[in-house]
Design a protein that fits this description.
The chain is α/β, with parallel strands linked by helices. 28% of the residues lie in helices and 24% in strands. The protein has 20 helices and 36 strands. The strands form 7 sheets. It has an 8-stranded parallel β-barrel, surrounded by 7 helices. It has a 7-stranded antiparallel beta sheet with strand order 16-15-19-13-14-18-17. The radius of gyration is 30 Å and the shape is globular.
Length: 729
């Protein structure tokens, strides 16, 4: 049996991006509509455009995945389900989801609708993939922080389809676990709700007062590694970029298509300098990074002096022309009229090149540059006019509403003509067969000029104006038969028209039956004072009893890192101690748990264990251990809470998305990147504390507050209806 080829999955932020993706070789596209998608500020699609786009893509054997990858509130659940039902009916190939409550309801009402767990689901180990598949997801989009070795291990297990990001923007924080944008945006700019403000692209000062873009990664580029990922069993290679322009989609998809095909054709490939230049020219943030594919890249992952597109270096200023908006540039690469340039001076200077004159010796004079520049300033080409034109030509006039069909689908034809019978044409594409006949015509024995094979073949291959091309043509023609050419043309047109219509409507499903109303299920959470310690040593010195006395509480709970719990004998008067597995356990903690799972399960049998991800929950439940569902699972609505309970877990913390600024300090980011500072300060002089996990391989960012005043804690405790946590970084 032939091994299934790895899919190339492209972003489509709008109709033009969709067309660029399809015409340049994408096997599948992912796009968002007007509701519940994590790129709500992209152009996106209306429901009618989604329907037309699905038909356009299916006609070309391209799958369409729709993003419903935000967290959904109780009052939004019925709307989200109705929206999912429309997508189900019009033939979307899968939904990309984050919210576990929404997933449970889609599986309830549309059990045959394929679901993909978004990278926002924070899955990074084999245990998490197994849990996702058990829940009902047919594909998992793994966290971007995994190495080739880790990806190979997970994909090789064959649990379900595995999807990996291979190109585009990286987040500093594990996707789904970031609260920085929401809290800095007064609760209105949540990444988990589709409105990330990208605080990682802002400048910060370190503890020594030096300003840099300490949280801004370069863009990922894994074009050199897609063969290894394909061989490892990865089902889908995903390009990030639903906020990007169509030329970007065309360039990146075309290049990745080229090298994925070369890998399958010859087993290896070498990326050309020209293609690397195209990728850099279309968008880069100070070059590219392979991300974590080859291990932790350290500070080389950072974008450097600027967090935006930095273009391609083309030369330096030899001199500004006095009294004019002209600059002489000593070139190391060509510049053309229509290129966009940026000059790195005290201020960034730039414009489109509207004046270009050769000055000899590799120097050109360009304009219109209005901002002052100095001799020696570096000149970068941000956009190449000729490249953009070439890329536009690859998709212009195509798409759901276009007339050109650059990408065509191969079909096989069989033409049968027998004297005394009507001619018959059968068209085959995949598993679909269309047979048409011309009942108005009976083939005759030719008296003078019979139908020759060459002429019949020419008529059958005239597929212009359709999305098809003839791959193989079989003809069974009676000797000296004769039929009008108009009949052959009619057969071809009708067969291809019927084939197109059938393919457009493939995947459409019957109407999903939904309830008219949807009442949130009830659940109870115990009111409790709890302390959450990120470092065990702090637990040993922190005065828990003082807070308990001030709040007049006799019993409280302290969550401590599992490894610290296992390595120490811990007791505190009136304090129940519960170990936890951090919401991201990848790396040293996963290794420790895997080697000591049975011993850990026995040690926590009485007290239970808190787990903040899909990983490891099933293993502890299977060993009879009480599992507390923690904040990293992002249980945002009543259905998500009920889902956790149905799995056998006890929810102790809802998603941090529901926390408000006055609810106390929470972790804003968790990252693989090790920051070279203990403090960050933003433009508004808000300071942030960098804290490391017990294993010292994850950095976390907290607002650098003093301890909450006791009056604030008392007010929180009086108003609390569930576990009131005090996070202690």
């Amino acid at each position: 049996m032939e091994k299934k080829k790895t899919e190339l999955l492209a972003p489509a932020g709008g109709i033009r991006q969709l067309t660029a993706a399809v015409e340049n070789g994408a096997d599948a596209v992912y796009l968002g509509g007007p509701l519940f998608n994590a790129r709500i500020n992209a152009d996106n699609f209306t429901e009618e455009e989604i329907r037309d786009s699905i038909q356009y893509a299916h006609l070309r054997n391209v799958k369409v995945y729709i993003t419903l990858n935000t967290l959904v509130a109780d009052q939004e659940m019925l709307s989200a389900l109705r929206y999912a039902a429309k997508l189900y009916e019009i033939g979307a190939d899968a939904l990309i989801l984050q919210d576990l409550g929404l997933a449970s309801q889609i599986l309830r009402f549309m059990p045959d609708f394929p679901l993909h767990l978004s990278t926002q689901g924070s899955v990074y180990n084999l245990s998490g993939v197994e849990m996702a598949e058990y829940i009902g997801f047919s594909r998992v989009v793994l966290a971007r922080e995994l190495s080739l070795e880790e990806i190979s291990r997970i994909a090789g297990a064959g649990i379900c389809d595995i999807e990996i990001f291979v190109h585009g923007a990286l987040c500093m924080c594990y996707s789904g676990q970031c609260q920085m944008s929401r809290l800095l945006g007064d609760g209105k700019r949540s990444g988990n709700r589709g409105l990330c403000a990208q605080p990682c692209r802002l400048p910060y000062k370190d503890e020594h007062g030096r300003t840099s873009y300490a949280l801004s990664p370069k863009d990922l580029c894994a074009v050199d590694h897609i063969g290894k990922l394909a061989d490892a069993g990865v089902a889908s290679l995903k390009i990030e970029g639903r906020m990007k322009f169509p030329e970007y989609v065309a360039a990146v998809v075309g290049i990745y298509r080229k090298y994925l095909d070369l890998h399958y054709a010859q087993g290896s490939y070498q990326v050309t300098d020209e293609d690397r230049q195209t990728l850099a020219q279309i968008f880069n943030r100070g070059g590219f990074t392979p991300g974590y594919l080859l291990g932790n890249p350290g500070k080389s992952i950072l974008s450097g002096e600027l967090p935006k597109h930095q273009g391609v270096y083309v030369g330096k200023v030899s001199q500004p022309v006095k009294g004019k908006n002209l600059v002489d540039v000593q070139l190391e690469q060509d510049l053309e009229l229509g290129d966009g340039v940026e000059i790195r001076s005290q201020k960034l200077a730039g414009n489109m090149v509207t004046y270009l004159a050769d000055q000899g010796n590799g120097t050109v004079r360009i304009g219109d540059i209005k901002t002052p520049v100095e001799k020696g300033d570096a000149v970068y080409r941000l956009t190449s006019g000729s490249l953009m034109k070439k890329l536009r030509q690859s998709y212009e006039e195509g798409g759901p509403y276009g007339a050109k069909h650059r990408r065509t689908v191969p079909v096989d034809m069989r033409l049968e003509i027998e004297v005394g019978k009507s001619p018959v044409l059968t068209v085959l594409e995949g598993q679909t067969a269309i047979t048409v006949t011309d009942s108005k015509i009976l083939a005759e024995r030719a008296q003078k000029r019979p139908l020759d094979r060459d002429r019949a073949e020419r008529q059958m291959r005239k597929t212009g104006g359709t999305p098809f091309r003839v791959r193989r043509l079989e003809m069974d023609l009676a000797e000296r038969c004769c039929v009008p050419v108009s009949s052959l043309n009619d057969l071809r047109r009708r067969a291809l028209r019927q084939m197109a219509e059938k393919k457009r409507h493939m995947g459409m499903r019957p109407k999903a039956e939904l309830p008219k109303t949807l009442e949130p299920p009830g659940f109870n959470m115990e009111k409790r004072l709890a302390f959450y310690f990120y470092q065990g040593e702090v637990f040993e010195t922190w005065d828990v009893q003082k807070i308990m006395e001030e709040l007049d509480v006799t019993q409280a709970r302290a969550y401590v890192p599992i490894r610290f719990f296992m390595e120490n004998s811990l007791k505190r008067s009136g304090v129940e101690i519960v170990p936890y597995i951090l919401n991201v356990s990848k790396g040293r903690l996963d290794d420790y748990i895997e080697k000591n799972l049975d011993r850990i399960a026995e040690a926590v049998r009485e007290c239970g264990i808190a787990i903040g991800s899909l990983g490891w929950a099933a293993e502890f439940l299977a060993r009879g251990v009480k599992v507390y569902a923690d904040y990293g699972l992002n249980l945002y609505n009543s259905w998500a809470m009920t889902w956790a309970i149905e799995q056998g877990m006890l929810p102790v913390s809802m998603s941090h998305e529901l926390w408000q600024a006055d609810d106390g300090m929470i972790p804003l980011m968790i990252s693989e990147h090790q920051l070279e500072t203990k403090i960050l300060t933003d433009r508004k002089n808000q300071t942030y504390k960098i804290v490391y996990n017990h294993e010292q391989d994850k950095s976390m960012i907290f607002m650098n507050h003093m301890r909450e005043p006791i009056q604030t804690l008392k007010a929180r405790w009086e108003n609390s209806q569930q576990e009131m946590r005090i996070y202690v970084p």
